[in-house]
Amino acid sequence: MSNSMFYPCSTTRAEGSRKMIALQHRSSSTPAGTSRRGGVFAALQVWLERREQRRALLNLSDPMLKDIGLSRADAWAEGSKPFWRP
Predict the structure, then answer these.
(1) Is residue 75 part of a domain?
(2) What pLDDT is attached to residue 7?
(3) What is the distance between the alpha carbons of residues 61 and 31, in angstroms, rounded to a whole number?
(4) How many domains does the chain have?
(5) What does 34-83 look like in DSSP terms, one character per residue?
(6) Is the residue at 24 inside a domain?
(7) Is there a domain that residue 41 lies in?
(8) What is the pLDDT of residue 86?
(9) CB contact burial 29-43 (16+ within 10 A = b; e otherwise)
(10) What is the DSSP letter of 20?
(11) Better-predicted residue by pLDDT, 6 or 71
(12) 18-32 pLDDT tens trace
């Protein structure tokens, strides 16, 4: 489970948005031939990853948030969402 999109790097806000869209797309699609049980486990994995990423986002300092183009309010708005909400 990677949290790389929430750590400071040279990623622009647009690149971060594309990564989030890719993550959302991956979480909303189920590969062909996946059983219902596999789909449930995939959903659980996405939820756990999302929860971990949101907690990491809330723990970033203000300078780190500034590096990735977010304010403390943006971080709080995203970090306070429940894990099941994209």
Answers:
(1) yes
(2) 44
(3) 37
(4) 1
(5) --HHHHHHHHHHHHHHHHHHHHHHHTS-HHHHHHTT--HHHHHHHHTS-T
(6) no
(7) yes
(8) 85
(9) eeeeeeeeeeeeebe
(10) H
(11) 71
(12) 555 555 555 455 555
